[in-house]
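[09:14] KT: can someone run the structure on this one? pasting the chain below
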Amino acid sequence: MEDKSVYWQFSELLLGLPELNWRGVVDQLPLADTQRRQLDLSLLQLEDDDQVAAEHYRVFGLNVFPYFSYFVESCSEGYERRDSELLKIFNGHNFHINSQEYGISPSHIGVLLRFYDHLQKKKISAEEKKEFLYQYLFSWVYHLYFSLKDVKSPFFEQVLSLLIQILYMEWCSLGGGHKFSEKLFKLSEEDGLNFMTDKSTGVVQIAKHFVSPSLSGLYISKHLLQMLSFDIRVPLAFGDRLSMFKSLLLESSKYEKLDELINELEVIVARWKKQVYSMSSEFELIKMEWVAKMNTTMVILNELRKAKNIKEDEIGV
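[09:31] RB: done, C-alpha coordinates below
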Protein backbone atom coordinates (compact mmCIF):
# COMPACT_ATOMS: atom_id res chain seq x y z
CA MET A 1 0.00 0.00 0.00
CA GLU A 2 1.41 3.40 -0.96
CA ASP A 3 2.26 5.82 1.81
CA LYS A 4 -0.72 8.12 2.40
CA SER A 5 -1.36 10.85 4.94
CA VAL A 6 -3.51 10.25 8.00
CA TYR A 7 -6.23 12.53 6.58
CA TRP A 8 -6.35 10.51 3.37
CA GLN A 9 -6.51 7.26 5.34
CA PHE A 10 -9.44 8.47 7.45
CA SER A 11 -11.14 9.72 4.29
CA GLU A 12 -10.94 6.19 2.87
CA LEU A 13 -12.63 4.74 5.95
CA LEU A 14 -15.40 7.34 5.84
CA LEU A 15 -15.99 7.31 2.08
CA GLY A 16 -16.09 3.50 2.03
CA LEU A 17 -15.51 3.27 -1.72
CA PRO A 18 -15.98 -0.15 -3.40
CA GLU A 19 -13.22 -2.76 -3.07
CA LEU A 20 -11.62 -0.95 -0.12
CA ASN A 21 -9.11 -3.01 1.86
CA TRP A 22 -10.53 -1.93 5.22
CA ARG A 23 -8.07 -3.80 7.41
CA GLY A 24 -5.16 -2.67 5.28
CA VAL A 25 -6.13 0.97 5.85
CA VAL A 26 -6.62 0.44 9.60
CA ASP A 27 -3.20 -1.23 9.87
CA GLN A 28 -1.53 1.79 8.25
CA LEU A 29 -3.03 4.40 10.59
CA PRO A 30 -0.35 6.10 12.74
CA LEU A 31 -1.90 5.41 16.15
CA ALA A 32 -0.64 5.09 19.70
CA ASP A 33 -0.75 1.56 21.16
CA THR A 34 -3.88 2.24 23.24
CA GLN A 35 -5.68 3.80 20.29
CA ARG A 36 -4.76 0.87 18.05
CA ARG A 37 -6.01 -1.68 20.57
CA GLN A 38 -9.36 0.10 20.87
CA LEU A 39 -9.80 0.31 17.10
CA ASP A 40 -8.68 -3.29 16.53
CA LEU A 41 -11.09 -4.58 19.18
CA SER A 42 -14.01 -2.76 17.57
CA LEU A 43 -13.00 -4.10 14.15
CA LEU A 44 -12.89 -7.69 15.45
CA GLN A 45 -16.69 -7.55 15.82
CA LEU A 46 -16.89 -7.46 12.00
CA GLU A 47 -15.67 -10.71 10.44
CA ASP A 48 -14.37 -9.52 7.07
CA ASP A 49 -14.25 -6.59 4.66
CA ASP A 50 -17.74 -7.38 3.35
CA GLN A 51 -19.17 -7.02 6.86
CA VAL A 52 -17.31 -3.73 7.37
CA ALA A 53 -18.70 -2.45 4.07
CA ALA A 54 -22.21 -3.54 5.11
CA GLU A 55 -21.80 -1.75 8.44
CA HIS A 56 -20.61 1.37 6.60
CA TYR A 57 -23.81 1.28 4.54
CA ARG A 58 -25.99 0.71 7.62
CA VAL A 59 -24.38 3.64 9.41
CA PHE A 60 -23.78 6.20 6.66
CA GLY A 61 -26.18 5.04 3.97
CA LEU A 62 -29.25 4.48 6.15
CA ASN A 63 -28.80 6.30 9.45
CA VAL A 64 -26.33 9.18 9.59
CA PHE A 65 -25.61 11.17 6.44
CA PRO A 66 -22.00 12.43 6.84
CA TYR A 67 -22.35 15.71 4.96
CA PHE A 68 -21.47 19.15 6.31
CA SER A 69 -24.31 20.73 4.30
CA TYR A 70 -26.85 18.26 5.67
CA PHE A 71 -25.92 19.01 9.26
CA VAL A 72 -25.88 22.81 9.00
CA GLU A 73 -28.76 23.49 6.57
CA SER A 74 -32.40 22.39 6.52
CA CYS A 75 -33.48 22.53 2.85
CA SER A 76 -32.23 21.64 -0.63
CA GLU A 77 -31.47 25.29 -1.44
CA GLY A 78 -29.24 25.47 1.63
CA TYR A 79 -27.47 22.23 0.75
CA GLU A 80 -26.78 23.49 -2.78
CA ARG A 81 -25.50 26.83 -1.49
CA ARG A 82 -23.03 25.15 0.88
CA ASP A 83 -21.89 22.73 -1.84
CA SER A 84 -21.30 25.62 -4.26
CA GLU A 85 -19.39 27.45 -1.53
CA LEU A 86 -17.11 24.44 -1.05
CA LEU A 87 -16.58 23.88 -4.78
CA LYS A 88 -15.47 27.50 -5.09
CA ILE A 89 -12.93 26.95 -2.29
CA PHE A 90 -11.75 23.69 -3.87
CA ASN A 91 -11.30 25.29 -7.29
CA GLY A 92 -9.39 28.18 -5.73
CA HIS A 93 -6.84 25.68 -4.45
CA ASN A 94 -6.80 23.58 -7.64
CA PHE A 95 -8.52 20.66 -5.94
CA HIS A 96 -10.98 18.78 -8.11
CA ILE A 97 -13.40 16.01 -7.18
CA ASN A 98 -13.57 12.95 -9.40
CA SER A 99 -17.37 12.77 -9.51
CA GLN A 100 -17.29 9.37 -11.23
CA GLU A 101 -15.24 7.97 -8.35
CA TYR A 102 -17.09 9.67 -5.49
CA GLY A 103 -20.60 10.19 -6.82
CA ILE A 104 -21.28 12.29 -3.72
CA SER A 105 -21.59 15.87 -2.53
CA PRO A 106 -18.41 17.93 -1.97
CA SER A 107 -19.48 18.37 1.65
CA HIS A 108 -19.01 14.66 2.51
CA ILE A 109 -16.57 14.42 5.41
CA GLY A 110 -14.33 12.11 3.37
CA VAL A 111 -14.01 14.73 0.62
CA LEU A 112 -13.33 17.47 3.19
CA LEU A 113 -10.51 15.37 4.65
CA ARG A 114 -9.03 14.82 1.18
CA PHE A 115 -9.14 18.54 0.58
CA TYR A 116 -7.38 19.19 3.89
CA ASP A 117 -4.75 16.63 2.86
CA HIS A 118 -4.37 18.68 -0.34
CA LEU A 119 -3.92 21.88 1.72
CA GLN A 120 -1.09 20.25 3.67
CA LYS A 121 0.93 20.11 0.46
CA LYS A 122 0.38 23.78 -0.36
CA LYS A 123 2.13 26.83 1.04
CA ILE A 124 -0.76 28.44 2.88
CA SER A 125 -0.77 30.08 6.29
CA ALA A 126 -1.66 28.38 9.55
CA GLU A 127 -4.59 30.80 9.88
CA GLU A 128 -6.04 29.68 6.54
CA LYS A 129 -5.79 26.05 7.59
CA LYS A 130 -7.37 26.81 10.96
CA GLU A 131 -10.22 28.69 9.31
CA PHE A 132 -11.04 25.67 7.16
CA LEU A 133 -10.80 23.30 10.14
CA TYR A 134 -13.04 25.54 12.23
CA GLN A 135 -15.70 26.31 9.64
CA TYR A 136 -16.00 23.00 7.80
CA LEU A 137 -14.90 20.33 10.27
CA PHE A 138 -15.03 21.34 13.93
CA SER A 139 -18.39 23.03 13.32
CA TRP A 140 -20.07 19.63 12.94
CA VAL A 141 -17.64 16.71 13.33
CA TYR A 142 -18.46 16.36 17.04
CA HIS A 143 -22.14 16.11 16.12
CA LEU A 144 -21.32 13.42 13.59
CA TYR A 145 -19.52 11.52 16.36
CA PHE A 146 -22.42 11.91 18.81
CA SER A 147 -24.77 10.62 16.09
CA LEU A 148 -22.69 7.46 15.70
CA LYS A 149 -22.89 6.82 19.44
CA ASP A 150 -26.69 6.72 19.09
CA VAL A 151 -26.48 4.32 16.13
CA LYS A 152 -24.40 1.82 18.16
CA SER A 153 -21.54 1.23 15.72
CA PRO A 154 -18.40 0.55 17.80
CA PHE A 155 -16.00 0.54 14.84
CA PHE A 156 -17.12 3.77 13.18
CA GLU A 157 -17.60 5.42 16.56
CA GLN A 158 -13.91 4.66 17.24
CA VAL A 159 -12.95 5.97 13.80
CA LEU A 160 -14.68 9.30 14.49
CA SER A 161 -13.27 9.54 18.02
CA LEU A 162 -9.73 9.05 16.71
CA LEU A 163 -10.30 11.48 13.85
CA ILE A 164 -11.41 14.19 16.28
CA GLN A 165 -8.30 13.61 18.40
CA ILE A 166 -6.06 13.92 15.34
CA LEU A 167 -7.86 17.03 14.08
CA TYR A 168 -7.56 18.64 17.51
CA MET A 169 -3.83 17.86 17.64
CA GLU A 170 -3.52 19.52 14.24
CA TRP A 171 -5.51 22.51 15.50
CA CYS A 172 -3.18 22.89 18.49
CA SER A 173 -0.07 22.53 16.31
CA LEU A 174 -1.37 25.46 14.24
CA GLY A 175 -1.69 27.62 17.34
CA GLY A 176 -5.26 26.91 18.49
CA GLY A 177 -6.99 29.95 19.91
CA HIS A 178 -10.34 31.68 20.20
CA LYS A 179 -9.98 34.31 17.47
CA PHE A 180 -12.77 33.24 15.15
CA SER A 181 -15.95 35.27 15.11
CA GLU A 182 -19.51 33.96 15.06
CA LYS A 183 -19.71 35.02 11.40
CA LEU A 184 -17.47 32.10 10.47
CA PHE A 185 -20.07 29.53 11.45
CA LYS A 186 -23.83 29.83 11.45
CA LEU A 187 -26.47 27.13 11.35
CA SER A 188 -29.55 27.49 9.16
CA GLU A 189 -31.23 30.85 9.74
CA GLU A 190 -34.67 29.22 9.61
CA ASP A 191 -36.52 29.96 12.83
CA GLY A 192 -37.69 27.25 15.19
CA LEU A 193 -41.42 26.65 15.29
CA ASN A 194 -43.46 28.84 17.60
CA PHE A 195 -46.52 26.90 18.73
CA MET A 196 -47.82 29.71 20.88
CA THR A 197 -48.47 32.05 17.94
CA ASP A 198 -48.59 29.83 14.84
CA LYS A 199 -51.95 28.04 14.76
CA SER A 200 -51.21 26.54 11.33
CA THR A 201 -48.40 24.35 12.62
CA GLY A 202 -48.93 20.71 11.68
CA VAL A 203 -47.28 17.37 12.23
CA VAL A 204 -45.06 17.63 9.13
CA GLN A 205 -43.52 20.91 10.34
CA ILE A 206 -42.85 19.39 13.75
CA ALA A 207 -41.27 16.30 12.23
CA LYS A 208 -39.10 18.42 9.94
CA HIS A 209 -37.80 20.36 12.92
CA PHE A 210 -36.76 17.24 14.80
CA VAL A 211 -35.08 15.44 11.89
CA SER A 212 -33.15 18.55 10.73
CA PRO A 213 -29.95 18.86 12.81
CA SER A 214 -29.62 22.56 12.02
CA LEU A 215 -33.11 23.19 13.49
CA SER A 216 -33.26 20.77 16.42
CA GLY A 217 -29.57 20.88 17.38
CA LEU A 218 -29.27 17.09 17.35
CA TYR A 219 -29.36 14.18 14.91
CA ILE A 220 -32.22 11.71 15.19
CA SER A 221 -31.34 8.61 13.16
CA LYS A 222 -33.61 5.82 11.94
CA HIS A 223 -32.04 3.57 14.57
CA LEU A 224 -32.95 6.04 17.31
CA LEU A 225 -36.52 6.34 16.00
CA GLN A 226 -36.85 2.56 16.07
CA MET A 227 -35.60 2.48 19.66
CA LEU A 228 -38.10 5.19 20.65
CA SER A 229 -40.93 3.23 19.05
CA PHE A 230 -39.85 0.10 20.92
CA ASP A 231 -39.44 1.90 24.26
CA ILE A 232 -42.91 3.48 24.26
CA ARG A 233 -44.49 0.46 22.54
CA VAL A 234 -46.15 2.08 19.52
CA PRO A 235 -45.99 1.03 15.83
CA LEU A 236 -43.68 2.86 13.46
CA ALA A 237 -44.03 3.35 9.69
CA PHE A 238 -41.23 2.60 7.25
CA GLY A 239 -39.72 5.33 5.09
CA ASP A 240 -37.33 8.23 5.47
CA ARG A 241 -36.68 9.88 8.84
CA LEU A 242 -39.29 12.58 8.23
CA SER A 243 -42.00 9.99 7.56
CA MET A 244 -40.88 7.90 10.52
CA PHE A 245 -40.93 10.81 12.97
CA LYS A 246 -44.31 11.92 11.67
CA SER A 247 -45.59 8.37 12.21
CA LEU A 248 -44.14 8.30 15.72
CA LEU A 249 -45.99 11.50 16.66
CA LEU A 250 -49.31 10.33 15.24
CA GLU A 251 -49.12 6.85 16.76
CA SER A 252 -48.02 8.10 20.18
CA SER A 253 -51.00 10.48 20.21
CA LYS A 254 -53.37 7.74 19.00
CA TYR A 255 -52.25 5.32 21.73
CA GLU A 256 -52.04 8.03 24.43
CA LYS A 257 -48.27 7.73 24.67
CA LEU A 258 -47.41 11.33 23.75
CA ASP A 259 -46.16 12.19 27.25
CA GLU A 260 -43.91 9.13 27.21
CA LEU A 261 -42.49 10.12 23.83
CA ILE A 262 -41.84 13.67 25.02
CA ASN A 263 -40.11 12.37 28.15
CA GLU A 264 -37.83 10.19 26.01
CA LEU A 265 -37.05 13.07 23.65
CA GLU A 266 -36.23 15.38 26.56
CA VAL A 267 -33.73 12.82 27.84
CA ILE A 268 -32.14 12.64 24.39
CA VAL A 269 -31.87 16.44 24.10
CA ALA A 270 -30.34 16.65 27.59
CA ARG A 271 -27.80 13.96 26.68
CA TRP A 272 -26.83 15.77 23.49
CA LYS A 273 -26.52 19.07 25.30
CA LYS A 274 -24.18 17.49 27.86
CA GLN A 275 -22.04 16.08 25.05
CA VAL A 276 -21.85 19.45 23.28
CA TYR A 277 -20.78 21.16 26.50
CA SER A 278 -17.90 18.65 26.71
CA MET A 279 -16.32 20.14 23.56
CA SER A 280 -13.18 22.24 23.95
CA SER A 281 -13.73 25.82 25.15
CA GLU A 282 -11.91 26.97 22.02
CA PHE A 283 -15.11 26.16 20.12
CA GLU A 284 -17.41 28.09 22.44
CA LEU A 285 -19.20 29.93 19.63
CA ILE A 286 -19.91 26.63 17.86
CA LYS A 287 -21.23 25.16 21.11
CA MET A 288 -23.49 28.17 21.70
CA GLU A 289 -24.93 27.88 18.18
CA TRP A 290 -25.90 24.23 18.65
CA VAL A 291 -27.16 24.68 22.21
CA ALA A 292 -29.42 27.56 21.12
CA LYS A 293 -31.11 25.18 18.67
CA MET A 294 -31.53 22.54 21.39
CA ASN A 295 -33.08 25.13 23.70
CA THR A 296 -35.66 25.88 20.99
CA THR A 297 -36.34 22.15 20.72
CA MET A 298 -37.00 21.96 24.48
CA VAL A 299 -39.50 24.83 24.16
CA ILE A 300 -41.26 22.92 21.38
CA LEU A 301 -41.42 19.78 23.52
CA ASN A 302 -42.95 21.80 26.36
CA GLU A 303 -45.59 23.15 23.99
CA LEU A 304 -46.31 19.67 22.64
CA ARG A 305 -47.21 18.56 26.16
CA LYS A 306 -50.21 20.87 25.96
CA ALA A 307 -51.55 19.14 22.85
CA LYS A 308 -54.77 17.23 23.47
CA ASN A 309 -54.29 15.35 20.21
CA ILE A 310 -52.09 15.28 17.14
CA LYS A 311 -53.64 14.62 13.75
CA GLU A 312 -52.34 14.64 10.20
CA ASP A 313 -53.05 18.33 9.64
CA GLU A 314 -53.43 19.87 13.08
CA ILE A 315 -52.16 20.02 16.62
CA GLY A 316 -55.02 20.25 19.10
CA VAL A 317 -54.13 22.43 22.09
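[09:33] KT: thanks! The chain has a mean pLDDT of 89.
[09:34] RB: yep, looked fine to me
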